[in-house]
């Protein structure tokens, strides 16, 4: 991580230290991590002796060698490969050897505490990732001299940094390379090895205090030195020192709390012994023993006071400075340890003076710090003994906790809501009814873990304990009690759903409650019993009955499919075998139950379309293998009831649910398809016969003569056939031949109602079997004829049906095997394509005429659907790509409404064919330019359908941005855009000195927007291609009419800031007066010898421009160029193109 200082560097460090202070003869120079190689050469006996003494004593007479992170830096060693000789290596070996080496260190400390302490100092510095030199000078100076030496500076000559600080009884000097604060040190390194190092480093501090608590910790020497060392290094400007020593100090304080707790327990035990002794009679009381107990209590109390003083020194010296550190990891460590202190030693730390730091840091800008605060508070609120001390904190920071449930970090929001759940369970007077109302709304959150946590709070607080419970008399059966309890909880759930009024989908509420209230939600017998009770008994209105049915259906879906809802994010997880088995068991139970009771429910609620539509969804979740004699008989009754409901209703939701349920029951894999298919065929055949009879009566001599009643019957029958045709294959009933006469021309003008046209155009032909090309052509012609219908809804549905038919046909062309069927080749004729484009221009790119906001939103949704259907034809290759040019024209004008659709279409067409896509962009810009020129030549102001020059130029800029940053992929496309643009400007123009400029010359200003996307060699190639159309005399011409050419040429020659100066310009849509004053000149332009001033003119082509520029002398390029682009094979090669040498040929 950090380069180890060389011998030369180290000598310079020593000289520098001598210059800063004069080391007394007793000064000790200690190299971090040194003497490892010499110890490896020692014998086994020497190693055994070395472990018995101090590491510093081992190295006292050895030559100082280079130190560092050792093998922990360069590789990941295996434990036990090499015997550890330093404390740092002991930590890296693991916890098994840690306690033994700490005991050895304590023995060495008792023998020679200065040398042992220097080893410990080196350990902390080495754990910071420092490969430096530690020099210890005994503290013998006056206080003023000591404070003047407390420095942390950089020696730029030697390239080293040093820090001098007081660690009583020494003044330590630590020297390290300049890149110490590069961000790489053990605590921040990645990988399992370094993650293990962090835990073992913390464990070492804890073991050290634990093993010393009965001996040297109270000698007023060890802890003073360690605390002063950690305090000084935690205040360092070097992040490695600050982070490592702050973590060590926090863990040291936590370990000291353990010692204080042990002393408190000993004091309490001794005091109880003293009370027992004093309670004895005077004859049996032992005064000597009582005095001994009292002396022990006093001694223990003195030790506890000493420990608390150490804790106070660490808190004030480290925590108060570092809990607001700029490094988030340090702030997180402080908050995490503070919560531990409050929980372990609440008499001292669980006070308002310490809790305020926890409350303040809940406003931290980093989510990890806020999370540590919330997790720490969960531990405090989970202990009932500590709750009385949190009253002031509740009143002061309750609002902040409630607001954190909407935190942008999902984990913080979830844990905060769990904390509030703990608070609600522990006390009733902290959260008000308004607070609960705000928290309950989170059950509709899009983040599922947050919604599930809110569901748990809702269930425990509101649903599990409903306000009113029905009184039950004595002797009531247990089953009845259970059913009544479920009913009461369901009523409480319905009241919450109705009172909140936030959402219209019960399925999301059921998903939120599933983890906490699944037993209630899966109690389908109780829910069914509630629905089948008499209205006077169940006490539910019609709306509440519908909500209970929604809860029932949502619970069935959740039990079978799991938590997979649109719009609700959840982490991807693998369904374990136990969960899969639970789903299968639930599916089997609900199948057995609803085969018996669903016909009764359909009979009871068949009059309500909403309830019937919900109940008809349940058969879609039946288990396909449930087959028995009872189930077959129950299924027959269910199919009969389903047929009656479908025949009764024409609501789209009911028909769609029934069609999907029939599809599920008729599947080959189900055990009852032999019963379900005949039942479905009977229902469909009945509708087909009814439609044939109605059609025969309505069509008289080619005219539609049905009355209103028969038209309504025909309409309902078509709706039912349409719904079933969308879900299933009804090609065997010949529906196309039956309904196609309705679309003949004489019928259209003969009085067919608009509703029938709407149904026919919407669904009647989208799925019709067109196995022959003639049918497809006839269908397209009839839909085209419907585009001129008087009714707007009929026209829109005919357009959508036509787009869907053409898209489906194109899909069949790609998936059918020619060897088996032969593709249905059908290409829309020019008349049809023009009609589709005209429809889009007329009904999409027009301003909505709506009064209310709801109508505006609905109108925009309708127009977006029409545009998306048309763009699908282009993306799927049904229409030529050039048909998208008219759509691309409105990219900027309707950016807020249709920008995403047009941009996606542009991206898809570029993926299909990048060259043809570029031609479409060129066609779009050129058509806009020509329309603008034609308008300005006629002398009329720009009409509604003509865009201004600035808008065309902005559109070109947006088109250029769609090519992205990878210019290599777009080389051919950009070259084609420039080539076609140059040819468009100079087509048919003969170069003469006296000739006027090209009428399309100002198009070069638009074309210059694509110059920045060209690679440097491509710019030269395009410039050379431009030279073929203009000569040197034209380039050197400074007339106003040639300024677009000069600007375009400057954009091709631009290379950075200088080129941007050359090509800077302002475009305008109206003529302005010339302004040649110096106040309009930028400093760059004014000081340039090639500046020609500011010009504003009305171009002969009719396009008004304003341009200030700086022209540099032209460069002559070669005249002859190849006439073709890079071949497709060369472009698609895997070899990387050299953008400095490869040119695109034009």
UniProtKB/TrEMBL annotation:
Location of the region described as Disordered in the Swiss-Prot/TrEMBL record: 1-76, 1062-1087
Entry-linked SUPFAM superfamilies: ARM repeat (SSF48371)
Transmembrane segments: none
Domain (SCD): residue spans on this chain: 319-404
GO molecular function annotation: chromatin binding
GO BP, one annotated term: sister chromatid cohesion
Keywords: Cell cycle, Cell division, Chromosome, Chromosome partition, Nucleus
GO CC annotation: chromatin; chromosome, centromeric region; cohesin complex; nucleus
Localization of this protein: Nucleus; Chromosome; Chromosome, Centromere
Classification via InterPro entries: ARM-type_fold, Cohesin_Scc3/SA, HEAT_SCC3-SA, SCD, STAG
Biased composition (Polar residues): 1-17
Pfam families assigned: HEAT_SCC3-SA, SCD, STAG
Quaternary structure, from the entry: Part of the cohesin complex which is composed of a heterodimer between a SMC1 protein (SMC1A or SMC1B) and SMC3, which are attached via their hinge domain, and RAD21 which link them at their heads, and one STAG protein.
Free-text function comment from the UniProt entry: Component of cohesin complex, a complex required for the cohesion of sister chromatids after DNA replication. The cohesin complex apparently forms a large proteinaceous ring within which sister chromatids can be trapped. At anaphase, the complex is cleaved and dissociates from chromatin, allowing sister chromatids to segregate.
Protein family according to the UniProt entry: Belongs to the SCC3 family.
Protein name: Cohesin subunit SA
Lineage: Eukaryota, Metazoa, Chordata, Craniata, Vertebrata
């Amino acid at each position: 991580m950090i380069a180890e200082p060389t011998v030369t560097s180290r000598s310079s460090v020593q000289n520098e230290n001598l210059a800063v202070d004069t080391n007394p003869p007793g000064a000790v120079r200690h190299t971090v991590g040194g003497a490892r190689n010499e110890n490896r050469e020692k014998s086994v006996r020497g190693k055994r002796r070395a472990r018995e003494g101090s590491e510093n004593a081992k190295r006292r007479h050895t030559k100082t060698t280079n130190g560092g992170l050792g093998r922990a830096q360069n590789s990941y060693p295996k434990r036990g490969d090499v015997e550890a000789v330093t404390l740092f290596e002991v930590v890296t070996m693991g916890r098994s050897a840690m306690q033994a080496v700490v005991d050895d260190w304590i023995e060495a400390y008792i023998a020679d505490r200065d040398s042992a302490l220097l080893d410990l100092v080196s350990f902390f510095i080495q754990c910071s990732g420092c490969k430096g030199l530690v020099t210890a000078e005994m503290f013998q100076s006056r206080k003023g001299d000591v404070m003047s030496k407390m420095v942390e500076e950089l020696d730029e000559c030697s390239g080293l940094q040093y820090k001098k600080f007081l660690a009583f009884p020494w003044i330590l000097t630590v020297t390290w390379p300049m890149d110490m604060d590069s961000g790489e040190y053990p605590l921040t390194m990645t990988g399992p090895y370094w993650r293990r190092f962090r835990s073992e480093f913390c464990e070492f501090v804890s073991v050290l205090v634990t093993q010393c608590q009965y001996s040297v910790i109270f000698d007023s020497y060890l802890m003073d030195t360690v605390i002063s060392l950690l305090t000084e290094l935690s205040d360092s400007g070097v992040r490695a020192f600050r982070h490592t020593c702050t973590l060590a100090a926090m863990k040291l304080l936590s370990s000291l709390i353990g010692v204080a707790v042990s002393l408190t327990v000993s004091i309490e035990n001794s005091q109880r012994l003293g009370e027992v002794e004093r309670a004895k009679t005077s004859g049996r009381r032992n005064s000597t023993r009582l005095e001994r107990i009292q002396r022990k209590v006093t001694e223990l109390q003195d030790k506890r006071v000493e420990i608390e003083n150490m804790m106070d020194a660490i808190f004030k010296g480290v925590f108060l400075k570092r809990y607001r550190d700029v490094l988030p990891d340090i702030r997180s460590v402080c908050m995490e340890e503070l919560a531990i202190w409050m929980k372990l030693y609440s008499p001292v730390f669980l006070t308002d003076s310490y809790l305020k730091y926890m409350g303040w840091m809940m406003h931290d800008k980093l989510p990890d710090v806020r999370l540590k605060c919330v997790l720490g508070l969960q531990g405090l609120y989970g202990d009932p003994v500590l709750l009385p001390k949190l009253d002031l904190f509740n009143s002061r920071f309750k609002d902040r906790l409630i607001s954190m449930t909407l935190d942008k970090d999902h984990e913080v929001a979830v844990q905060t809501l769990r904390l509030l759940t703990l608070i609600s369970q522990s006390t009733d007077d902290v959260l008000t009814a308004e607070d609960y109302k705000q928290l309950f709304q989170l059950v509709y959150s899009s983040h599922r873990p947050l919604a599930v946590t809110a569901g748990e709070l809702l269930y425990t607080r509101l649903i599990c304990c409903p306000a009113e419970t029905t009184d039950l008399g004595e002797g009531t059966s247990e089953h009845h009690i259970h059913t009544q309890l479920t009913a009461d909880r369901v009523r409480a759930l319905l009241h919450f759903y109705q009172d909140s009024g936030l959402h219209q989908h019960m399925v999301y509420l059921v998903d939120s409650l599933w983890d906490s209230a699944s037993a209630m939600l899966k109690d389908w017998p109780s829910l069914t019993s509630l629905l089948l009770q008499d209205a006077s008994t169940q006490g539910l209105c019609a709306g509440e009955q519908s909500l209970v049915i929604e809860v029932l259906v949502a619970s069935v879906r959740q039990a079978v499919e799991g938590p997979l809802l649109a719009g609700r994010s959840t982490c991807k997880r693998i369904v374990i075998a136990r969960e899969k088995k639970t789903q299968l068991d639930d599916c089997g139970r609900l199948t057995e139950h609803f085969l018996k009771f669903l016909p009764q429910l359909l009979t009871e609620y068949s009059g309500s379309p909403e309830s019937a539509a919900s109940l008809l969804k349940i058969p879609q979740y039946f288990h396909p293998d449930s087959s028995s004699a009872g189930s077959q008989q129950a299924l027959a009754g269910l199919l009969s009831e389903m047929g009656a409901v479908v025949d009764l209703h024409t609501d789209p939701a009911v028909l769609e649910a029934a069609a999907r349920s029939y599809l599920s029951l008729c599947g080959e894999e189900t055990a009852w398809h032999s019963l379900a298919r005949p039942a479905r065929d009977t229902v469909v055949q009945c509708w087909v016969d009814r439609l044939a009879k109605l059609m025969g009566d309505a069509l008289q001599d080619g005219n539609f003569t049905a009355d209103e009643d028969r038209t309504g019957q025909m309409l309902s029958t078509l709706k039912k056939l349409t719904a079933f045709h969308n879900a299933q294959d009804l090609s065997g009933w010949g529906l196309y031949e039956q309904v196609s006469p309705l679309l003949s021309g004489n019928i259209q003008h003969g009085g067919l109602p608009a509703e029938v046209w709407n149904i026919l155009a919407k669904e009647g032909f989208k799925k019709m079997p067109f196995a022959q090309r003639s049918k497809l052509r006839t269908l397209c012609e009839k839909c085209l004829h419907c585009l001129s219908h008087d009714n707007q809804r009929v026209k829109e549905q005919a357009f959508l049906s036509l787009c869907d038919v053409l898209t489906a046909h194109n899909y069949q062309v790609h998936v059918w095997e020619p060897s088996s069927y032969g593709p249905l080749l059908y290409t829309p004729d020019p008349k049809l394509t023009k009609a589709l484009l005209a429809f889009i221009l007329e009904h999409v790119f027009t301003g909505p005429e709506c009064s209310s906001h709801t109508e505006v939103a609905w109108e925009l949704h309708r127009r977006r659907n029409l545009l998306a259907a048309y763009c699908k034809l282009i993306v799927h290759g049904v229409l030529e790509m050039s048909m998208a040019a008219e759509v691309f024209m409105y990219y900027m004008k309707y950016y807020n409404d249709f920008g995403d659709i047009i941009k996606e279409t542009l991206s898809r067409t570029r993926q299909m064919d990048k060259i043809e896509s570029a031609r479409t962009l060129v066609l779009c810009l050129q058509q806009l330019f020509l329309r603008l020129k034609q308008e300005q030549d006629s002398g009329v102001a720009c009409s509604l359908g003509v865009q201004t020059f600035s808008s065309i130029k902005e559109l070109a800029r947006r088109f250029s941005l769609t090519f992205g940053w990878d210019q290599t992929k777009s080389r051919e496309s950009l070259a084609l855009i420039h080539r076609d643009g140059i040819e468009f400007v100079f087509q048919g123009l003969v170069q003469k000195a006296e000739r006027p400029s090209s009428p399309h010359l100002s198009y070069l200003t638009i074309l210059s927007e694509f110059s920045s996307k060209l690679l440097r060699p491509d710019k030269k190639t395009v410039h050379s291609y431009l030279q073929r159309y203009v000569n040197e005399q034209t380039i050197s011409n400074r007339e106003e009419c040639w300024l677009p050419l000069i600007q375009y040429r400057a954009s091709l020659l631009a290379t950075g800031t200088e080129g941007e100066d050359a090509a800077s310009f302002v475009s305008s849509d109206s003529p302005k007066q010339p302004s040649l004053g110096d106040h309009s000149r930028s400093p760059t332009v004014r000081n340039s010898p090639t500046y020609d001033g500011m010009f504003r003119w009305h171009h002969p082509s009719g396009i008004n421009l304003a341009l200030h520029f700086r022209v540099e002398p032209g460069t002559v390029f070669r005249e002859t160029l190849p006439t073709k682009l890079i071949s497709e094979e060369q472009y698609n090669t895997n070899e990387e193109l050299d953008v400095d040498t490869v040119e695109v040929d034009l």
